[in-house]
């Protein structure tokens, strides 16, 4: 006696639903950051709190534009980004540690992009 095994291949093609193609996100919905490990430029949807690098798999914490400062490396002059409140930053290119003082701070990225600065938080 011969046995036959049938394999269920799902519904016939004419019954399969076709998902509507999603339009690509608009440029205003996309943000960018540099991976804290491998220094690759990452693109992500605005509002995300964490972004995983597709190259090195590092999970990066996303800072808001008004929480990020910029300073040029004291050795090689590459532009570095750091969280406000940091006293120094190590350059990913040359490993030089740049002290962050009033003399070398740049305006927050949000200000450079023409957005108004966030309201000052009064100290109670």
TrEMBL record:
Zinc finger LSD1-type domain: residues covered: 35-59, 73-97
TM helices/strands, residue ranges: none
Transferase recorded as keyword: no
Keywords in alphabetical order: Nucleus
InterPro entries referenced in this protein's UniProt entry, alphabetically: LSD1-like, Znf_LSD1
Gene Ontology cellular component annotations, sorted alphabetically: nucleus
Localization per record: Nucleus
Compositionally biased intervals (Basic and acidic residues): 1-12
Pfam families: zf-LSD1
Protein's recorded name: Protein LOL2
């Amino acid at each position: 006696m011969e046995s036959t095994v049938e394999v269920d291949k799902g519904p016939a093609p004419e019954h399969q639903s076709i998902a509507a193609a999603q339009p690509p996100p608009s440029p205003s919905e996309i943000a960018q950051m540099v991976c804290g490990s491998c220094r690759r430029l990452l693109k992500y949807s605005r509002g995300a709190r964490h972004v995983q690098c597709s190259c090195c798999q590092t999970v990066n914490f996303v800072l808001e534009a008004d929480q990020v400062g910029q300073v040029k490396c004291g050795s090689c002059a590459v532009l570095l980004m750091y969280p406000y409140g940091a006293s120094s930053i190590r350059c990913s290119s040359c490993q030089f540690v740049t002290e962050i003082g009033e003399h070398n701070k740049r305006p927050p990225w949000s200000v450079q992009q023409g957005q108004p600065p966030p309201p000052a938080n009064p100290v109670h």
